[in-house]
Triosephosphate isomerase
Amino acid sequence: MRRKLAAGNWKMNGSRAALAEVEALCAAHPDSAVELLLCPPATLVAPMADARGSHPLRVGGQDCHSSESGAHTGDISAAMLKEAGASHVIVGHSERRTDHGETSETVAAKAAAAHAAGLVAVICLGETLAEREAGTTLAVVADQLGASLPEGATAANTVVAYEPVWAIGTGKVPTLEQIAEVHEYLRKELATHLPDAADGIRLLYGGSVKASNAADIFSVRDVDGALVGGASLRAEDFSPIVSALEQA
Ligand SMILES: O=C[C@H](O)COP(=O)(O)O
């Protein structure tokens, strides 16, 4: 009942020339059973929305401000992303939490702004290596989830991405048991916050997903897809991940 979601986060990578990758991805998956989402830098949201043509690929932002408008130099609002062609926006990525000091309360405000603008919020959370080694992973992600969910979150407007910070861009991946433990726990935690929506909210895994490990990760219960960084930049890398999800 939860539609699988293959999401790519281009981070601060890409150019108009890279839109050829979007065309190649769309051509490789013309009628996919899974939902496809790419989140390029803000400058590429509108060009990417054009490049997809009639393909149902979704385009998303990587961050938005919690306000509708105002004196916030360098920021972008959810409505601006929407106008540019976005349907989703990532909020609370660990790189935002670390580089920009975003708290879970900030993330909840951004997710609320996304919802108000009609965007799906992809709320990211995950433990650091020190937290994993201290045995506090479940407590950390539970705290982040509870504080990052805005009022009014539903299965239609919210996706949660579990991304262990130590697995992002490192080539290190949790064991399937560790992924299963966290996803199962997040599903239960969702039920305490949003009893009516918990079963429908997609839970993505993120952190060094690639073609060689995707099928195993997608076999884990409560993994509804992936948020992929480096391996989403090229169609030849992302397409096998999408195919693995289609076959999961
Ligand atoms: O948003 C994506 C994640 O940070 C994962 O990045 P990665 O696939 O390059 O490890």
Notes: The chain has one domain: 5-247. The radius of gyration is 17 Å. The first helix runs from residue 19 to 28. The domain at 5-247 is CATH 3.20.20.70 (TIM Barrel).
